[in-house]
Amino acid sequence: MDEGETRLDLDSNELDSFDVSYLAEALTQNKTVTELFIHITLLQDNNMGDEGARALATALKKNNTISSLWINKNDVHVRGAKAISDALVTNTTLIELNIRENPIGDAGAQELGNMLKQNECLQTLRVAACGIHASGAAKIADALRENRSLTHLALYSNPIGNEGAMAIAKALTVNHTLDHLRLYETNISDDGVIALANILPANNGIRYLNLMKNDSISDLAVSYLQGSIKSNKTLRELYVRGSTNLVVE
Q1: If we measure between CA atoms, which residue out of 249, 227, 243, 240 comes closest to residue 165?
Q2: I want to staple 105 with a disulfide (CB 3.0 to 4.6 A). Which of 28, 111, 131, 152 is the partner?
Q3: Calpha distance 78→204 (Å, rounded)
Q4: Phi and psi dihedrals of 217, rounded to 5?
């Protein structure tokens, strides 16, 4: 590994856990790589699985330069999520974690939630399409009540439903650090929207809220949401059904 390299992109290189283990060992010594991308955008999978995630977690406990880690679409389950989460409890440099499209489920979300209660540097967490339901969303929401570093949360394409949205809304009554929240395609309907709408007048953190592709949201709920943002001074972008920003400057 080149000691002068700052960005290492291994997208679609068909890496397995064995390959990632060697990479992780090298990262324990490397002091220049700040961004690591091990994911898929085309047809060739990286398939590091839980073993690869555990190897990376070991590296994260020793490496103090990596600030961004993308491991989406890598067949990481709850054991891998736990390993990464445990490492981030003490890691002080990683500010972005993309673990989307890995089947970590609600148990994995709980591990991430436990981490967020203790981590003080992670700013962006992408857990889209991870099989997270209301209970998993509630664990992350519970962590948001204590966390003061996370600014971007992408939970889209998880069936968290109204119960999950309500849990997040409750957390946002005390959390004013989070400013980007992506909840599109999450099975939210009127009750979830109303819960979020009710906290917006007093929340001075959220600047971007995306609720698109939740087709059960009624016109009445949209109107209620629009009414609630009239007294909000920080929200700049709000999307519910289409690409039109509902926030009028």
Answers
A1: 240
A2: 131
A3: 34
A4: -75, 125
Q: From CA 97, how far away is CA 166, in angstroms rounded?
A: 24
In terms of pTM, does the model score above 0.70? yes
Cβ contact 101:72 at 8 Å: yes
**CB proximity list for 228: less than 8 A, separation 6 or greater:** 197, 198, 200, 201
Answer yes or no: are the C-beta atoms of 56 and 24 closer than 8 Å: yes
The CATH superfamily holding the domain 7-199 is Ribonuclease Inhibitor (3.80.10.10)
Other Cβ atoms closer than 10 A to 92 = 11
Q: pLDDT tens-digit profile of 132-174?
A: 999 999 999 999 999 999 999 999 999 999 999 999 999 999 9
